[in-house]
Design goal:
Elements (H helix, E strand, L loop, with lengths): L8 H12 L11 E4 L21 H11 L3 E6 L6 H10 L3 E4 L6 H10 L3 E2 L15 H8 L4 E5 L7 H11 L4 E4 L12 E4 L2 E6 L2 E4 L11 H11 L4 H8 L1 H6 L17 E4 L5 E6 L2 E5 L1 H7 L6
Parallel strand pairs: 1-2, 2-3, 3-4, 4-5, 5-6
Antiparallel strand pairs: 7-8, 8-9, 10-11, 11-12
Helix pairs in contact: 4-5, 7-8
Length: about 300
């Protein structure tokens, strides 16, 4: 969440405290993604206008200091005044810079990619559409062989047909499947609070009172099933879109996203219907059905 008229310093400090504690039970937090505050008010989605700021080089140095080396990804609208300077600075610092919540034209997106942007936050959502005379940022991304694009794979944020088109445009190697999930993830037909704004889950989508979609309630196992149902990829390709592709974006592909010696023993076990049966995080069983808990009780991971 953002904060009015400032950068979210307290939230960042809290995140860093959690990340410095290496005694995680379950999934390991990979780092910090700041989705703003340098985004375009015209494409803000559920972000409050008071959270948004224009890029500032001195503020960028403050962000780098606050995040303590844990900042993996920052979403910026590259057309904003001052954006070019912070894109260069963050890229030099080894951080993945993403284009998102943006009103950038095709040409502005091309310029941003030349500056070092290698990622796009939730493609199609909160950006100019792909039109035949105004192709927008998605056309620039499709033409850039090294830029990866996120896809919220709930079938609501992006129509299944458009999901399939995006995967065809980028290929499975450059598509990153995400959930964009909120606290209500996995809970059907509920109400919750989003930064002081009442939100409700209706037919698989979280919406504010004015109908604006706010994040999602998608879980990653359902995202896997959706991708296989709604696009034309294989199981192997779909798994890569959920694992090694985001690991590359987070600069963790040296130990996350693959099953091979030297990598963290992070595994998911599904049945033939792709229903999750067990989760293993860095060699420790974090979740298992009764049947699989018995099966895994004698295993030891080195």
């Amino acid at each position: 969440m953002g904060v009015p008229d400032s950068i979210p310093e307290q939230q960042i400090k809290t995140a860093v405290e959690v990340l410095r504690d290496d005694l995680f039970l379950g999934a390991e937090p990979a780092g910090i993604h700041l989705e703003g505050p340098y985004i375009n008010v015209a494409r803000r989605g559920a972000h409050k206008p008071s959270w948004l700021r224009l890029p500032d080089e001195s503020e960028t140095e403050r962000l780098l200091a606050l995040t303590g080396g844990y900042l993996r990804l920052l979403t910026v609208a590259p057309e904003l005044p001052g954006a070019a300077a912070i894109i260069r600075r963050l890229v030099d610092a080894g951080i993945t810079v993403s284009m998102g919540h943006t009103d950038a034209t095709y040409e502005q997106a091309q310029e941003a990619i030349e500056l070092g942007i290698t990622h796009v936050t939730h493609c199609f959502n909160a950006m100019r559409p792909l039109l035949h005379r105004a192709p927008g940022p998605l056309a620039a991304v499709a033409q850039s062989k090294h830029v990866r694009g996120e896809l919220i794979a709930d079938g609501v944020h992006v129509h299944p047909a458009a999901m399939n088109v995006l995967v065809k445009l980028l290929g499975p190697e450059r598509t990153i499947v995400i959930t964009d999930a909120l606290a209500a993830a996995g809970v059907p037909n509920t109400t919750f609070d989003f930064a002081g704004q009442p939100a409700r889950v209706i037919r698989g989508a979280a919406r504010l009172s004015d109908g604006t979609i706010t994040g999602s309630v998608l879980t990653m196992d359902q995202a896997l099933r959706n991708v296989l149902k709604m696009t034309e990829v294989s199981l192997q390709q779909a798994v890569g879109m959920l694992t090694i592709n985001p690991a590359h974006a987070a600069h963790l592909s040296h130990r996350k996203g693959c099953l091979q010696p030297g990598y963290d023993a992070d595994l998911l076990i599904f049945d033939q219907s792709l229903v999750l049966q067990a989760t293993i995080c860095r060699g420790a069983v974090a979740f298992a059905t009764d049947e699989w808990r018995d099966r895994l009780s004698g295993l030891r991971f080195l």
